[in-house]
UniProtKB/TrEMBL annotation:
Protein's organism: Streptomyces himastatinicus ATCC 53653
Entries under CDD domains matching the protein: Sialidase_non-viral
Official protein name in the record: Putative BNR/Asp-box repeat-containing protein
Gene3D superfamilies, A to Z: YVTN repeat-like/Quinoprotein amine dehydrogenase
Highest taxon listed in the record's lineage: Bacteria
Source organism phylogeny: Bacteria, Bacillati, Actinomycetota, Actinomycetes, Kitasatosporales
Biological processes, Gene Ontology terms: xyloglucan metabolic process
């Protein structure tokens, strides 16, 4: 089996798992104890050991971005904060929600999405970041709302063919796209419903929860909304609903297979006052036809009742063969599938609330 690294960010630290040859996992941690880790990046574009990036929040020292070039054996925090709002913005960093190494077209670029809702760009692998002022200065930004978790740029998607094509999701601002490397931005929400607004199809203001990019067609995107699961076949210019057949069209997380086009995974959540898995059942749903149909994949997952909710960044795939699929929940449980979702096993439990999951083959 492939040598896989699994990073699990929780409300009280980061845990790193390693599966070297067999089915068993070895975990270390917590790294950054008593700090909430909302974002992790595993940058495998470098030759040799991948670089790990972690966005950690200290209630005493505030948020920061740490990096490790030895798989978490040691961590470096720059003397000057890597992500900081410039003077004149009258704001300060509350949290780093996303650390996204861009594709092969931009080998040293890393994006950071933050709360308050802003975007930062690094050209040195995440050591330093520059403020993307064009998004901050967008005339619609002052009208963005704040989701239950706060106002944040929580998703960044880059086109592997085009370094200038960048898509971000804002809670609650919606989807914005740039075709010129971030020099300008346009809302991209046609067809997305905002069920909580009087005008349910506004130009912007949707509460998008997560976006994933198709493996073989980068123009195809999958989106989990605050009510509704969607697909776009034109880089987000237009969206269509694909939630038919799911037990609920609400949820937070969605992930795509890294090699098979049309394959995506999600974990539905009931849209109501309880916000638990539908019927209190722990289930992952997979599509193999770009959302035309969905199939439950729950072999090995706990039976009902089960109350663990999967947050927006806590469902992920790796790039192994066969592909591994992972999710963590607010019960502090982590589940893994080594066969593309056909079956599951619990690989960690009793952790703090799981906030984000990342996985990659490293050897």
């Amino acid at each position: 089996m492939d040598d896989v690294l699994l990073a699990v960010g929780t409300r009280k630290g980061l845990f790193l798992g390693r599966r070297r040859s067999g089915p068993d996992w070895d975990f270390t941690g917590p790294h950054f104890p008593m700090q909430a880790v909302y974002s992790v990046g595993i940058d495998t574009r470098r030759s040799g050991t991948p670089r790990l990036l972690a966005g950690a929040d200290s209630s005493h020292w505030g948020p920061s971005v740490f990096r490790s070039d030895d798989l978490g054996e040691s961590w470096h925090e720059p003397a000057r904060p890597a992500v900081r709002f410039p003077e004149g913005t009258d704001t300060s960093l509350e949290r780093v929600w996303q650390l996204h190494p861009a594709g092969p077209a931009a080998p040293d670029v890393v994006y950071a999405g933050t709360q308050p809702g802003a975007l930062f760009r690094s050209e040195d692998g995440g050591e330093t970041f520059e403020f993307v002022r064009s998004l901050w200065d967008h005339p619609q930004r002052p009208e963005w709302g704040a989701g239950f978790g706060g106002q944040a740029v929580h998703t960044v998607v880059t086109d592997p063919r085009d370094a200038d094509a960048v898509t971000v999701a804002v809670s609650s601002g919606g989807v914005y796209r740039s075709a010129d490397g971030g020099a300008s931005w346009a809302p991209s929400n046609s067809g997305l419903r905002a069920e909580f607004l009087p005008d349910q199809y506004p130009e912007f203001g949707q509460c998008v929860h997560k976006i994933a990019q198709d493996a073989t067609d980068p123009d195809r995107l999958y989106l989990q909304n605050h009510g509704g699961v969607y697909r776009s076949d034109d880089r987000g210019a237009h969206w269509q609903e694909i939630g038919k057949g799911l037990p609920a069209d609400f949820g937070f997380a969605i992930a795509a297979h890294p090699r098979r086009g049309g394959v995506a995974y999600l974990f539905p959540v009931s849209d109501g006052s309880d916000r638990y898995p539908p019927e209190y059942r722990c289930r992952v749903f997979r599509t193999q036809d770009a959302g035309a149909s969905w199939e439950e994949r729950s072999a090995g997952l706990p039976g009902e009742p089960h109350y663990g909710v999967v947050l927006r960044d806590a469902l992920r795939t790796d790039d192994a063969d066969p592909v591994g699929v992972y999710f963590g929940n607010r019960n502090g449980e982590v589940y893994a599938s080594a066969d593309e979702g056909e079956s599951w096993r619990q690989i960690a439990r009793y952790l703090p609330d799981v906030l984000c999951v990342r996985a990659a083959v490293i050897g």
